[in-house]
Each structure stands twice: as structure tokens, then as C-alpha cells.
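Can't paste images in this forum, so I'm doing it all in text. The chain is below; anyone willing to post the predicted C-alpha cells underneath?
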Amino acid sequence: MRLSPSGRSVRARFSVLAHTFLRARKKTILPFLIAGCLCLTGEGAAITRAQQAKRSFTVADDIGLTRFGGSWTAIEKQVLFSPDGKYFATESERGRLDLNCVEDSLRFYRSQDARNFAMDSHESRPPSPVWVVTRLGREGPIINDWRWLDDSSGVAFLEAKSFLGKQRIVLADLRRKTIRVVTSEVDELGTFDLRDPRHYAYTVFDPEDQGKRQRGPNGAAVVGTGHSLFELILPNDPVTRYVERRTQTVWAVVGGKPFMVKHLGTPLKVLNGELAISPDGGFIVATATVPEVPAAWEALYPPPFASDTYRIHAGHFDLETSRVHEYVLIDLHRG
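Text version of the structure:
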């Protein structure tokens, strides 16, 4: 389809997507619909410029190209609706040659604006974002693990100035249009969940665990069983630290007071587990390794097929060797 400078063809194409979206489930069509909307936002103008002066696509063009999702793993969320459905946010990343850095952005849109644009046959201008949050850093991705707050008041995310470097929790307050840095920079911060700036929880990779794994290029031979290719080929590479199975300690902030979460007097450790904090900020739910696996569990939780590598085996395991996990509810006031 050839696009006219007026943008009517753009509106028509988005309208088709929108009608499909309104007839289908949000979770099924949503990423494609919104990504298409934002891509088409500047499509008419871009083609008009191309018609005026054709030229070759350059390396500088590639660096400055805006793409959805900043995660190098390609699994980063790109479009999310707010819990109340009134807004949606998109994340994008591009290179800034003029500043010699990477730029990540969160754009907030009103859902009703997108719906009105799709329904009005005379409207040729796509909806504009109500707020744009821009973060700069030496290497991408800058914005990581972002999610809406339960009350739809804003988005919390992890911010890193360099690839797999120190991160901090940041809150983008949509109602006030302000940015609030919740924590200082934390080395090897894992995951987090936040109710408000005074009630949240997060994990930090255990530095002792990393120290045990590091070895020089001329180190002694090691047994490869149980280790990933990343660990064997690039043992000290930052990517290895990101993907390998590593223990994490759990920290929480209740009423603005931070503390390490302990169980029976010892620090609670999880293995690359997710966590969630309760609405009142008094409890967290996390996944924890089961050190003693009962024999009855081998029959209680059978594998999908007999030779499954990850089938349950009874016995005693540590955090690194056990593949059996359970959900635990932790009282942050009593430990």
C-alpha cells in the first residue's frame, strides 16, 4: 500500500487493527496493535521525507533507529496496559550519536485517545503520548523489568547506566509527571516488587557465590557436569553472571526502613526466584529451593515423560543443585 503524505492511509491501516483489537482479547492482540500504532505515527512523515530526497541507509541511521523493547534477551515487555485500563505504556530504545549514549524511553498514552483515533474516520493524526520518560546511559538496556503499580499511578523499573552494571529502582509517577529514585545504585540487583516508595522488596546476588565461581583463564581444570556452556567458556563474562544459576539474598523496605529478610536468624536466600510483596507491604511471596525432597514427591509430581531431565528426585540438595522449588509466604515483621 502506498501511503499519502496526509496520513489517511496510516489511519485506515490502524483502524483495521483497532477494530480487530476491540473484537479480541487485549492480551492476544495488544502488543501488535500498539506497536503498529506507534510505528505508524511517524510513517507518513517519514515516507514524505524519503520522497523528497532518496539516499542510502547508513550505519548512523541504524544506530539511531528506534526499536521496541530495550532488553538484549528480546523478552522485555514492550507494551503494558495499566491495571485500570485507562492508560498503556510502551518502551523503546535508540542510539544517540549526538550524545554518544543509549536512550531508553517510556511513553504513556491514554487508551481512550487510541480508541477515538481508531473510530473517527476523519481523524488523520495519531494520538500523542501524555508523558514521555527518557533515561540515558553508556550502554543499553537502560530501563529493565518495568511494571505498572497496582493503583495505576505510575511505572516502576530498574535503571542501569551500563550493560549488566549497578542498578537502582526508579518510580515514574504518572499522576505528578515526576521521576523518583527509590534506591541508591545496587551492585548485582536481581528482581524487585514495589507497592509504594516506602514498601517494596528486592533481591541481591550473593557476592560470596560469585567469588566462588570466578577463576582465571589459566585456572585448574573443572568438572563440566552441572555447568552451563556460558560458565565453562566465559566464566567471568558479565553475560555469564546474568544467565547462570546464582543465589540471591532478599531485602525488604517496610515503612521506609530497609532490612535483610531472615528466617530463623539466617539470611533468606533464593535461587533466581521471583517475589511479590503484599498490598499492605507486610508480607512477601517468593520461590525457595526445597533442600529435603521427600520420596513421595517422585510419584506425586510425575514428569511429562520418563526421561525428562528435570524430573523430581528425592534426597538432600543445596541451592545450586536442587531443581525443586516451593512458594513461601514470609511475614516481614516476624521473619
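Residues 8-23 form the longest helix (16 residues). The two ends are 62 Å apart (CA to CA).
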